């Protein structure tokens, strides 16, 4: 009989609006906790500084639609005519290593994930202000229209924070405090 990994039924979802620091936080958490970020698949263009297979799996619309049709995604959403989702096969990788899958998601995807995985730990990462989001989006680049849409969407998503297990403010300039708070939440969930 194979011993069951006590972490194998765990899932952590880190949600929040674009440019709130979810990706940076996921990288930092992986240094300290037995978690591994699941790489999402998207149809959006690759941005400067991003790496295929590290930041995202980049595919075209036809390939993504084939993934949907073949039921190979745990969930997916469409933003600004671009698809985002997670392959079922990616979920198995951390579990095989004895780690907990960590999904970095927008609120819309996170709510869908909660329906599929009701025992998942869900943490909503909030900005300290919309001004902080605007500043970070400008640093990421992109068109003015895209940035305005992402800011509008960020404002809308902040009202969804109450649907998550935890809500944590990522105050600009106090990232270490945010990391400590979320580490405590995750350690409690994992029984560490």
Describe this structure in words.
By secondary structure, the protein is α/β, with parallel strands linked by helices. The protein is 42% helix and 23% strand. Strand 5 and strand 6 (82-87) form a beta hairpin. Helix 1 (22-32) packs across helix 7.
List descriptors.
single chain; 192 residues; alpha/beta; Rossmann fold; 5-stranded parallel sheet; 4-stranded mixed sheet; 42% helix; 23% strand
CATH homologous group name? P-loop containing nucleotide triphosphate hydrolases
Helix content: 40-55%
What is the domain total for the residues? 1
Instruction: Report the top-level CATH class.
Output: Alpha Beta
How many helices?
Answer: 7
The run of helices and strands is EHEEEHEEHEHEHHEH
Global shape: globular
Low-confidence stretches: none
Do you know the CATH architecture? Answer: 3-Layer(aba) Sandwich
The biggest sheet amounts to:
5 strands, parallel
C-alpha termini separation = 25 Å
Q: In percent terms, what proportion of residues is strand?
A: 15-25%
Instruction: Give the integer mean of the pLDDT values.
Output: 86
Radius of gyration: 16 Å
Biggest sheet, strands in spatial order? 2-7-1-8-9
Structural class: alpha/beta
Number of beta-strand segments: 9
| CATH fold naming | Rossmann fold
